[in-house]
Design a protein that fits this description.
With about 270 residues, this protein is of the alpha/beta class. About 40% of the residues lie in helices and about 20% in strands.
């Protein structure tokens, strides 16, 4: 009863109850789900315009998100579940939708070299060469966050960006891990090599195993997109190519699965 009273009092104080949302508004960059919403509200919220939250929720997570929104001065709108469903067609919103007026958080860095300057440890970068499935990118971002990668780098063309689906699958990692899109991936890899970062590509035909490769220094792990793997120019920009041991009948793993294996092998070596 006390929790219910606190939530009702919040909406009364914010004068949102009379303006309860009954039709689905639109946003250039909606963010769905409690993990993603919490992550955005804990970062830079300058692009956030409104929070739509399922009416009559009384749980602890709702109280936490309301507290975050209040502290940031973000308008909160209690919204019927059916309206939220209409705002998130094909997505699982979990009762929370955040509207933003920018495609990326303003805290995102724009150049991998800028990121290197402020690191207190050897860089651990994930480079994705043409991943087009938003679910794969979201899963890669989640693994990058869990393994402590400093950034995910991807080309601007022929690759998925930070779509609502990516935010949802990433469970907040799209807001916690810098996602850097570059115009020319091969050139960016060459710049990283000049800056002292070893560029290591994952390729099924490589002679060297990932587990035999030192990953404790500054490294950029490069993985190819769905089906095609690394492009020719990307391969040429790698210092070395390594492979995962495949003991079954399949020739390769999904890029998000391979990403998790590579990043956590790097983390294992760094923590020994």
């Amino acid at each position: 009863m006390q929790d219910d009273f606190c939530i009702q009092l919040y909406f009364i104080q914010k004068n949102t109850e009379p303006d309860q949302v009954t039709t689905p508004p639109t946003s250039p960059n909606p963010i769905y789900g409690h993990h993603a919403v919490e992550a955005v509200l804990s970062q830079d919220t300058s692009s956030v315009t409104a929070l739509f939250i399922q009416e009559n929720r009384k749980d602890a997570r709702t109280r936490q998100i309301l507290k975050q929104a209040e502290g940031r001065g973000i308008p909160v709108h209690p919204t019927p579940r059916k309206v939220l469903d209409g705002m998130a067609v094909g997505m699982r919103h979990q009762g929370f939708i955040l509207h933003c007026n920018a495609s990326n958080p303003t805290w995102q860095v724009q150049d991998p070299l800028d990121l290197l300057k402020g690191l207190a440890e050897p860089a651990l970068l994930l480079v994705l060469d043409g991943v087009q499935d938003p679910h794969n990118l979201g899963a890669c971002l989640r693994s990058a966050d869990g393994a402590g990668a400093h950034a995910v780098v991807a080309p601007r063309d022929r690759a998925v960006g930070l779509t609502p689906a990516v935010h949802k699958v990433a469970c907040g990692a799209a807001e916690s891990v810098p996602f850097i899109r570059v115009v020319n991936l091969a050139r960016s890899l060459d710049d990283l090599r000049i800056a002292g970062v070893e560029v290591i590509g994952l390729a099924g035909e490589a002679d060297e195993l990932l587990y035999d490769t030192p990953l404790t220094g500054a490294v950029a792990l490069v993985l190819g997109g769905e089906g095609k793997g690394l492009r020719r120019l990307t391969r040429r920009s790698c210092d070395r190519l390594v492979r995962l041991p495949m003991r079954g009948t399949v020739e390769s793993l999904n890029v998000s699965v391979a990403t998790g294996i590579c990043l956590y092998e790097a983390r294992r070596q760094r923590e020994q």
